[in-house]
Design brief:
Maltoporin, Chain A, five-stranded mixed β-sheet
Length: 689
């Protein structure tokens, strides 16, 4: 019971009150073969800070729990940080995970972890490519003030049927793919489920508890003719964590899209996508002083149109997007009071991105994105004073704009490549975000509260400058990179002192707005050939916030500020059967807020906080290893595979949550560290046919 309590405590807030293939965005005209270790691509691409990963080649990171996890692999890249122990969420260049946009076949997805982050939301069997834009973000992407992760799911085979079955200690998954109409209509279907909850039912102590997840992916690819294809994509997942008399948390994700891809004569293309997504939480808590049940959701419905025009040495991306957004910050019943805050918005964007190579050594990219975000009438809006008290309450006509925020987002980058072996890149981008997440700690949980830009809340606007030098050896056996960046963000939100997500239903009463900044350097050395491959990366970074009314209006370290991050990743291919992987990660201590003093009121001790995020947690480090054995049978049409993995090999209990507790008589105070995981072994069997 103690282990489950620690797991669930860690999920709580800190306080109750406190290839040469024509590709287009979103789809592929034919199979793309891009090696994740393609040094030449990293040297020559005009997009500084872009990382593209081909899922089939994603073998460098250890495969744990029978999963090749795209999110865990992204966390090992320079400039990308895991959010916390076990988390699938990631932070990029001083931003939080809530400042990232994650697209699954054009549809936005939230809360990307299962089982406290041991599994990511995305089943590797369902994925084709993932591209992370952490520096320059092309103009056709928006909605994030930090980074964009664009994930493309895999289309099914159209020549024959095949599939995959995997059974592990914590979960099982299966997939099937093949031609519904030979050489015309392909299908791929994936399903995955954990079964930790089934083991709990075998015990007297835990039979009434739940700890499970389920997800499924479906994609249809219909080839109408040589120039037109239709793609239908669907994703759904459900998570539930319940502990008797303590907590009942469940959340669901659904995302779907229908895309029409048309190729004009030449290499120009058009893609039209209808998409919808829904993220919903339904939680009940009776722990850490809270006794509350509440719900929330984020829903999107929209259309995305993009043209990719190839005109000689010029490439143009232009298009528009229109999307309806529905955000329920929270709905709860406390005592006899039922409260709800729900807002809707109409989000429109248009863009133009131009890429040009006047000579072989130079390539330029420039673009602009125009965003018009309108908060819509229907629910109540209000004004608040400096202390967060409501001073005026009013209501506008349903679905009529209450406030429209117009944002112009210029973006520009260049690459100078005097030889095949090295290049210099520079870039500047402005991005904006109109969906804001608020949390009491640095971990992503279903307890985040979301709000949209309104009459009071302005869009987050981030300006980022990047400069980098890239080099590879003549045979591409090794390549090296050094990038520096500076990022400034306006209209950053943070909770007022002594306030947390459940203090009031009106979320704008709880927060203050200010500015943020992040800067640092990223270094990476890669070995790309031979039996032993991998990389070593180091990130030095600062992330700070300044808000009037918090920390005396001075700059203070953001709660995701970490000074040093080191990743060492290695893959050793012993022979055709055995492959070994290892990854060692080190993070210096993360900033957090600790009480400076306390005072007594009658029989209660009250903590006093003089400085926001003025203390550091202990350093974090761990080693993950895995070994994979595979053998083809029946003429190569079937493959058997065993995977053995160990998460946190040397069993270090890293800090996840630090709480402060009084002594028996209240005179003393001690800090107590909670950890999620020690050593976690895993084994799985895969059968591919």
């Amino acid at each position: 019971m103690n282990r489950l309590k620690i797991l669930l405590l860690a999920l709580m807030p800190l306080t109750a009150g406190a290839q040469d293939t024509t590709t287009v965005k979103g789809q592929q005209l034919q199979e793309v073969i891009v090696n994740a270790n393609n040094a030449q691509r990293r040297i020559g691409s005009v997009q500084i800070g872009a990382e593209q990963i081909q899922i089939k080649e994603l073998t460098s990171a250890p495969a744990l729990f029978g999963e090749i996890d795209v999110m865990r692999s992204l966390q090992l890249l320079p400039g990308v940080k895991s959010e916390s122990d076990g988390s699938s969420s990631f932070q990029v260049r001083g931003g939080t995970s809530a400042q990232n946009t994650i697209l699954y076949d054009e549809a936005p997805v939230y809360n990307i972890g299962h089982l406290a982050g041991l599994f990511s939301t995305f089943n590797d069997n369902a994925l084709a490519t993932a591209t992370l834009f952490k520096g320059l973000v092309p103009a056709q992407y928006g909605g994030a003030s930090s980074a964009v992760l664009d994930i493309i799911s895999r289309a099914g085979r159209t020549d024959r049927w095949g599939g995959n079955v995997s059974i592990g200690l914590l979960s099982a998954k299966g997939s099937i793919e093949g031609p519904v109409i030979k050489d015309k209509l392909g299908l791929v279907f994936n399903v995955r489920r954990s079964y930790a909850d089934l083991f709990l039912k075998l015990t007297d102590d835990y039979r009434d508890n739940s700890l499970y997840f389920f997800d499924t992916n479906l994609k249809l690819d219909y080839k109408m003719n040589d120039r037109n294809r239709l793609f239908l994509s669907f994703y759904a997942s459900h998570d539930k964590t319940a502990l008797t008399d303590m907590v009942d948390m469940q959340w669901t994700n659904m995302a779907g899209s229908l895309s029409w891809l048309h190729q004009f004569r030449g290499r120009s293309t058009s893609q039209t996508t209808l998409f919808a997504s829904s993220y919903k939480t339904d939680n009940g808590i009776s722990i850490l002083g809270m006794n509350i049940a509440y719900q929330g959701h984020i829903r999107h419905t929209g259309i995305h149109q993009n043209f990719r025009l190839m005109l000689g040495n010029h490439e143009l991306n232009t298009g528009l997007q229109s999307m309806l957004t529905d955000v329920k910050s929270a709905e709860w019943t406390r005592m006899s009071n039922h409260e709800k805050e729900q807002r809707k918005a109409w989000d429109n964007a248009a863009w133009l991105n131009w890429q040009y190579s006047p000579v072989e050594q130079w390539t330029f990219s420039a673009g602009v994105r125009l965003t018009a975000f309108s908060a819509l009438g229907g629910p109540y809006y209000y004004d608040v004073d400096e202390k967060g008290n409501i001073t005026w309450l009013y209501k506008r006509t349903k679905n009529m704009p209450v406030k429209t925020h117009l944002t112009v987002e210029p973006r520009v980058s260049m690459v100078y490549q005097p030889s095949e072996q090295w290049s210099v890149k520079a870039g500047y981008s402005r991005t904006s975000q109109n969906i804001h997440a608020l949390r009491s700690q640095s971990t992503t949980t279903p307890f985040d509260r979301y709000t949209i830009s309104t009459n009071l809340v302005k869009p987050e606007i981030a300006d980022q400058m990047s400069l980098g030098v890239f080099y590879m050896t003549p045979q591409q056996d090794y390549d090296f990179s050094l990038e520096g960046y500076y990022r400034h963000v306006d209209n950053v939100l943070d909770y007022r002192d002594g306030i947390s997500f459940a203090s009031a239903i009106e979320i704008e009463r709880l927060v203050l707005a200010g500015e943020g900044r992040g800067y640092g350097a990223e270094m990476c050395a890669r070995k790309n050939s031979g039996r032993l491959t991998g990389w070593l990366s180091y990130t030095l970074s600062w992330s700070q916030t300044r808000i009037d009314g918090i920390s005396q209006g001075q700059w203070y370290d953001a709660n995701n500020d970490r000074r040093h991050d080191i990743n060492v990743v290695a893959t050793y291919k012993l022979n055709d059967a055995w492959t070994f992987n290892a990854a060692w990660v080190f993070n210096s201590g993360q900033a957090f807020t600790a009480p400076s003093a306390k005072y007594q009121i009658i029989d209660n001790y009250i903590y006093y906080y003089a400085e926001r995020n003025g203390y550091r947690a202990p350093d974090y480090h761990r080693l993950d290893v895995s070994a994979t054995w595979s053998k083809k049978i029946k003429g190569g049409r079937m493959t058997r595979e065993w995977n053995f993995g160990i998460y946190n090999l040397y069993n270090r209990y890293n800090p996840y949550l630090i709480r402060f507790e009084d002594s028996q008589y209240g005179r003393g105070t001690r800090a107590k560290q909670y950890s999620l995981f020690g050593i976690v072994p895993s084994v799985s069997f895969n059968l591919k046919f």
